[in-house]
Amino acid sequence: MRAVHYLNQFFAGLGGEEAADSSPTRLEGAAGPGRGLGIEIAMTLTCGDDFFGEHEDEALVTLLRWLTDEQPDVLVCGPSFGSGRYGYACGTLAREAARRGIPTVCAMHPESPGVFAAEGAAYIVPTGTNVASMRETLPKVAALATRLAAGEELGSPQEEGYLPRGLRRNEHAGASGATRAIQMLLGKLSGETRTEVTAAFDHVAPPPPAHDLRLETLALVTEAGCVPQGNPDGLPTIRARAWLRYPIGTASSMAAGAFECVHGGFDVTAANADPNRLVPLDVVSQLVREGRIGRLHESFYTTTGNGTPVATSTKFGQEIGLELKQAGVGAVLLSGT
Amino acid sequence: MFVTALPTIATMIGANRVVRGVAITNVFGDPSRSPASEVALRRKIVERALEMLETDVEPGAVWEVA
């Protein structure tokens, strides 16, 4: 069995966030968690999370060339757990490999963008949000990878323990919908949550364009975790449960030292050196002075978009949106990763 | 509208007006430039965002900054 393993810069041992811009690299044999899979890894491929996100086409050309040269029986990507960029890279590479005839197994949190990126082309083992679930995940990944490498056809997601891939197969349920719904409710009351239909992201039609921003109020919102220096309200670096608003006052720029970025999902060095790189207050203030924008809303809104469940993010958006609408704001500039 | 260096993820989850930012670590900046040049770049990105706000778009539209 020939297996190839894809890891990000951190798990491959190249470094942390400071190595997130690493271009694709090829390593002999297993690395990091690959050593814990218990299967023979011929080659480990790695790429920095930022590099993949920002230069996806270039990264894929290189990674896919190495993959197709190697012609493995199976590709394993991750586990990436709750990671956004790493998950996206795993899901995207898995999709492209699978389309080139290489069966692929990934492991990530069900809400990772990698699940959507995979477009059902890969077998994804659901995991928790962080490495705490590494030990229980690796054997599951190894088992699926071994069977796929042997050319075995896998059973349903429920039987085999991977996420539904969006394929429909008719089958007999054995009980009516009403009966199954009551069984689910009784199960939920005793602490077991099941679903037959998985949630999808809702889509909102684009609002009509702003007629003339010279007459409108613009608000600045960010999910990059920009807060006053010292983080007085304790915005978490990950899994934020709240958003915050801070008055802009007479400030015409986000002064370094007055603001900092507490987002735990990327290297904040550049952002701390000049917070305008995340919340472009200097330029927006200038545009207001020149009359290009009618008014700047008196507060900016901030949260940390790192490991935030979809339901929580949706709530944040609705709450902030409602407040802005009630304040007569006509347009929003949202910044983030 | 949303300025981000990961427009694909943004449109995947339903964002409609997206402008591609410079990088994950500095969306509106570029530390390799001189301060004046960086502010000029930031202004270009913001102006593109304003332009998009004033334009009718298809769902999931992503604009680059020239």
Put the structure in a nutshell:
With 337 residues, chain A is α/β, with parallel strands linked by helices.
User: How far do the termini of chain A sit from each other?
Assistant: 38 Å
Element order of chain B: H for helix, E for strand = EHEHE
Report the order of strands and helices of chain A: EEEHHEHEHEHHHEEEEHHEHE
- Counted by DSSP, the helix tally of chain A is 10
Total DSSP E strands of chain A: 12
* Radius of gyration of chain B using CA atoms only: 12 Å
Structural class of chain B: alpha/beta
* Beta-strand proportion of chain A: 15-25%
Walk me through the structure.
- The complex is a heterodimer of chains A (337) and B (66).
- Helices cover 32% and strands 19% of the residues of chain A.
- Chain A has helices at residues 49-54, 56-70, 84-99, 113-118, 134-149, 157-160, 177-189, 269-273, 281-289, 310-326; strands at residues 3-8, 25-28, 41-47, 74-81, 104-108, 123-126, 217-222, 226-228, 244-247, 259-261, 295-302, 331-336.
- The longest helix of chain A is centred in the C-terminal third of the chain and has 17 residues, at 310-326.
- Chain A is globular.
- With 66 residues, chain B is α/β, with parallel strands linked by helices.
- Chain B has one domain.
- Chain B has helices at residues 7-12, 35-53, and strands at 2-4, 17-20, 61-63.
- In chain B, strand 1, helix 1 and strand 2 form a beta-alpha-beta unit.
- Classes of the chains: A alpha/beta (337), B alpha/beta (66).
- Chains A and B meet through helix 1, helix 3, helix 4, helix 8 and helix 9 of A and strand 1, helix 1 and helix 2 of B.
- Strand 12 of chain A pairs parallel with strand 1 of chain B.
